[in-house]
Amino acid sequence: MSSNPTSPIKRRVSQQSIIEWAGQVVTVGGDAPVRVQSMTNTDTADAIATAIQVKELAKAGSEIVRITVDNPAAAAAVPAIREQLDKMDVYVPLVGDFHYNGHTLLNDYPDCAQALSKYRINPGNVGQGAKRDMQFSQMIEMACRYKKPIRIGVNWGSLDQDLLAKLLDQNAVSATPKELNQVMAEALIQSALQSAQRAQELGLPSNQITLSCKVSNVQDLISVYRDLAVRCDYPLHLGLTEAGIGSKGIVASTAALSVLLQEGIGDTIRISLTPEPGAPRENEVIVAQEILQTMGLRHFTPMVIACPGCGRTTSTYFQELASRIQSYLRHQMPIWKKNHPGVESMNVAVMGCIVNGPGESKHANIGISLPGTGESPAAPVFVDGVKVKTLRGDKIAEEFQLIVDEYVKNTYQNKVSG
């Protein structure tokens, strides 16, 4: 691995899967960027509420959205959800999340099977005993009939118990028995790989299969995916199965996924945050984007660099300005993305005193160094490393925002002729 910390991360070689709807194609794996995925938490039977949440998730930047399809009412609502989204010009691909009765729902509701762009199948929940193979086969046959890709998603909490029991029996008589968590990890991987092989035997092309093996523990997740990555070339979907609420969920997801992404492992990611009361669902999309952007893997929106504040800072003004600018940048992105390509790579620095303020501001595309304790009440502004203006008075925020607007307009000009 290169010692240069800014060198591109070498991605694991994988096949490329295609997910699409109405001409919008989302590639996964191969040379595609790491994709951001999310999932609704509405009652899918409520088509309007679900379509609205899908729209918000897509607007926030989710490139793939998964919806629960767990009963006849939900399956019947899927075409209506798709229709509502199409009317709103939201063509994000929908993934149907199936457990237990997916074979029945896909068979009984062909419009649902067609309206979805992808099926998620958990091999631990497709049936028991002889029914497992039959019901799994029925779902794969539907995927082949409607030309839909699938994700085989194995979860620690719903592992194939027959496979686990078999591996535990083998381990018990082994000369070098493994720890229980190692046996369970092997069961996860074998369940995913055997299911993928069976899907191919049933006629599904290998490049239409994505795998995931989710657990809740950070170290276990890293270990499982490292092993899985060298045993197949399917695209891999990353995520802790239950990350948690608030900062715990963000930290756990970042800790696990950053290690794997740094090693080139992972083609789609989802941050499974438990929403705090009243918190918007799209927060999980923003966290996923920020992980990828801070690692230099993708750019989604201009980044704001701000100091944490200390005894040298006179007030919370720089914090308020940083928050205001960050919200403004994200709010402007839907417009800027169309008219100013490349703006998503811009960096803006909002600093609170002279110690690091001017230096950090010079390293950003645009930076402002606000006065700290005992400093002159002036805020120098730097553009591409050059001091261009000093702001004073009670309109600093408004004037700085105008400077940002002007920089975007002049630097990221629309290259699309028309």
From TrEMBL:
Its EC number is 1.17.7.3. Residues 304-405 form the IspG C-terminal domain. Its cofactor is [4Fe-4S] cluster. One of its GO terms (molecular function) is 4-hydroxy-3-methylbut-2-en-1-yl diphosphate synthase activity (ferredoxin). It catalyses: (2E)-4-hydroxy-3-methylbut-2-enyl diphosphate + oxidized [flavodoxin] + H2O + 2 H(+) = 2-C-methyl-D-erythritol 2,4-cyclic diphosphate + reduced [flavodoxin]. Pathway: Isoprenoid biosynthesis; isopentenyl diphosphate biosynthesis via DXP pathway; isopentenyl diphosphate from 1-deoxy-D-xylulose 5-phosphate: step 5/6. Keywords: 4Fe-4S, Iron, Iron-sulfur, Isoprene biosynthesis, Metal-binding, Oxidoreductase. The keyword Metal-binding applies. Residues 26-288 form the IspG TIM-barrel domain. It holds the Pfam family GcpE_C. Binds 1 [4Fe-4S] cluster. GO terms for biological process: isopentenyl diphosphate biosynthetic process, methylerythritol 4-phosphate pathway; terpenoid biosynthetic process. [4Fe-4S] cluster binds at C307, C310, C353, E360. It is an enzyme of class 1 (oxidoreductase). The keyword Mitochondrion does not apply. It comes from the Bacteria. NCBIfam families: ispG_gcpE, PRK00366.1. Belongs to the IspG family. PANTHER family: 4-HYDROXY-3-METHYLBUT-2-EN-1-YL DIPHOSPHATE SYNTHASE (PTHR30454), 4-HYDROXY-3-METHYLBUT-2-EN-1-YL DIPHOSPHATE SYNTHASE (FERREDOXIN), CHLOROPLASTIC (PTHR30454:SF0). Converts 2C-methyl-D-erythritol 2,4-cyclodiphosphate (ME-2,4cPP) into 1-hydroxy-2-methyl-2-(E)-butenyl 4-diphosphate. This is 4-hydroxy-3-methylbut-2-en-1-yl diphosphate synthase (flavodoxin). It comes from Polynucleobacter cosmopolitanus.
